Amino acid sequence: MNTVTDIAAATEADSAPFFIRGKLVEGAEQIHRSRDLGVDFATPKIDLDSLVHPRSELPPLLNTPVSEIIDFLHEAGQRLADPNNPHIQTTIDRMAKVSLQPRKSIEFQLKHAIGYLNPKVLRELVEQNFPNPKALDEWVPHTDHTGRRSFIRAYAPRLIHVLPGNAPTQGIQSIAQSALVKSVSLFKMASADPFSTVAFLRTMAEVDPNHPVVRSMSAIYWRGGEESVERVLYRPQYFDKLVAWGGGDAINNVMKYVGPGFQLVSFDPKTSISMVGREAFASDEAMVEAATLNAGDVAMGGQEPCVSSRFTFIEASPEQADRYCEVLAEQIRIDRMGEGTPRPLDMELKEQIDVLRMMDDEYAVFGKTDGRGVAIRSEEPVDFHPLRKTSNVVCVPDLMEAMKYVNVATQTVGVYPFDRMASLRDHLASGGAQRVVRLGEAGPSAIGNPHDAMYPLHRFVHWMANEDGVEHR
């Protein structure tokens, strides 16, 4: 910074410090602008050398038992849960300025994310991801049917995580998962949340500044696609895998760096849907029940997370679907989480919905385009991405007809009535969907279950075999 304008911007911008291998790094040499709301924030200048853990040095967590890692994460979770934790409170204040989500939603998500550090959750996560969790702590012996001996280890990887900006919970989950696989990790934060991951790591450092978990983690921000940073870091000399969350542009950007020795574990952009059977119209009570459950899946996290429902396929006539949409819109607009005043709809999205409202021969629109909730009835899915508590309810003669809209980008499918899941799940899996649940339960998944059609921790580690010849009998 060497101009009056730069100095003024740095003075007004919130500070987004870095956390590098156990140390807080502060500074305001770089001014960035958040993607969603165009708010400035300031970061230190990046020292690329400090971000690389030499391969000649063993990972700090390698010989720390998983049980001890879980104990440390639990203790850190208690510190994070303290309502007087200054790092979390500051993060909430600053995130509220750059995030599309209302402040109350951010508070709610951060509060509940800390539950991820519960020891029972962490142990179950490990047990579900690894048939033999001992492989994380030691070289596990194995002899095949020919008598050939081996030792197998889930070796500590070196990971770069490209974090999403729409889920402040993901930072804490990624830290915990990285710790459990004993990785050396660099977290690239998003412009919609360049604060929370550093706040989590700062709190952990206050528990024990020299703990191997703390010394294994770094979190910084750079603008996605900045080649001066990515051409240097995205190399197999320094890291094994790139764990990428985000939209299509973010994933496409990192794809060009993937090659031999440098793998991609991608959590691609996904869309979740709902399926409501004709049984919802057996009675008024059943319809209200289905619409209420549906609304919970739509409104979750302000409809920012991939798991939030965007399209509802319903076995109904237009007249039935209109009754359903009227109740659905009312239920979406109920502020169950105490989010308060929502962000207004993007102008382009608002205009698209308002145009549909005038096309009453093909569409019916219920609710208002004020960010609190809208339901759109149609015969075909709308050609835009429903967002900010917008649900597109599509009439189908049979739920099997909706299968043509299911693909590998379909993450979660909520079904009503619940007993129809069994008859739909094979077809959903064949279409590419990754998860089917009861309508209204799209939220937190069962602990340790596959995510995006894989067991993430199993993918993260570097599987190593030490073969030791044939055992003589």
From TrEMBL:
Catalysis: reaction(s): a long-chain fatty aldehyde + NADP(+) + CoA = a long-chain fatty acyl-CoA + NADPH + H(+)
Keyword NADP: yes
E.C. code: 1.2.1.50
Domain of life: Bacteria
Keywords: NADP, Oxidoreductase
CDD domains in the cross-refs: ALDH_Acyl-CoA-Red_LuxC (cd07080)
Family that this chain belongs to: Belongs to the LuxC family.
Entry protein name: Acyl-CoA reductase
Organism: Novosphingobium anseongense
Classification of source organism: Bacteria, Pseudomonadati, Pseudomonadota, Alphaproteobacteria, Sphingomonadales
